[in-house]
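[audit] Reproducing an earlier prediction to check determinism. Same input, same settings, fresh worker. If the tokens differ from the archived copy the diff job will pick it up downstream; this log only records the rerun itself.
[audit] input (400 residues):
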Amino acid sequence: MSTLWSGRPPRPRSTEGPARVAHDAAAAALLDLDTRQTYVAAAVASAGQMLIGTDLPRRWRPIAERSFEASAAYLEASERHPAPDGNDQAAAHAYTGAHEKMTEAATAIDDFYRKHRSELESARSKAAAAPRIAADARSEAERAVAAVAAADPEYQRYPSVNDAMASLSEALVGLAASGGPADQHQRADHVRAAAEALSRAVAAAPGAARAAASAIASVRTRLDAIQTKVDRLAPAQSALLREFSAASSADLARNRPKAETALADARAAHASATELLAAGDPEGASAEVTRARARAADADTAVTQVQDRLAALRTARNDPKEVERRVRFRIRDAQRLVVDTATVAEWGSVLDAQSARVDRAVAALTGPHPDYWALLTEVDAVTTFVADIVARVRAQVAGK
């Protein structure tokens, strides 16, 4: 490219008169301008495709228009003076004027190129490399497919390998249908990513059976532990009903059937995983293990909710003043904050209202079976509300 910027061609010497000299010089300038304009225009087009967010095409547009106008001046002179006489002053003037315009346009092209040379040449290189990049991607795909063929045929039954093969085939179809250089680069990236995914799937296949067997054993141990917890659920629910008002655990009344159903589902998924592994489908077995774990977690949650409720209610019954003390401490702490930050006018009455909520909740603890769950629920709500106020006050102060 550097040879294009070594200077424009000199005016040719001629003994045929000024008109002919001007004509020959303008013709040489036209060829030089066309060479420069064509080269840079192609580089700008590549930049528009290959460089994300570039504004080079917009910057280039007025310079290209100037080049076309200068060329048009030469063509107009050629139409008016196709074979100028050596002493034709009008012809000499027309060709000289066109020559000057083309020289100025070429200078503008030179300046644009020098200013953006790095971007332009980078874009040209990337565009030129597109066919090679595409070919390299195809080679990677071929190697990945060859690795599948060379591996244990059993692996081709694995969903991970089959899915990866399908994705690679789709990516190769897309590469074959790619358009310009930018599209080729993008689709080649898709092929390489799909080939890498296939290679990983094949590499992971030998350990799939071992991983599935280990997971099945682990889940079996967990299911046995949860079964023990489910067996203890009935006494916990009975204690809730004996020791506290029915309202304290009404929302947990169906936790035992929920836990039993979830545990039964988990055991069924575990059995299915065991069968799939024995049939040579470790990935299918792993999927069933995942399902077994999810349902086991559901069963565990149902049990834990009952146990946690019983423990929380007993704590509140044994020392309701401690429950009250903790929430009032948070309210007072928030009140000190609004005083220190001079936001009492905005938040003081809001925090006072929270104290009133606690007063009402404590006063409601009456009768032979006080509703301690109502107290705990209200205290939790107040605690959350106060924490939100504290966060908003701090954010408000930080923003000043």
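[audit] rerun output stored. Observation attached for the diff report: Residues 325 and 331 are 10 Å apart (CA to CA).
[audit] end
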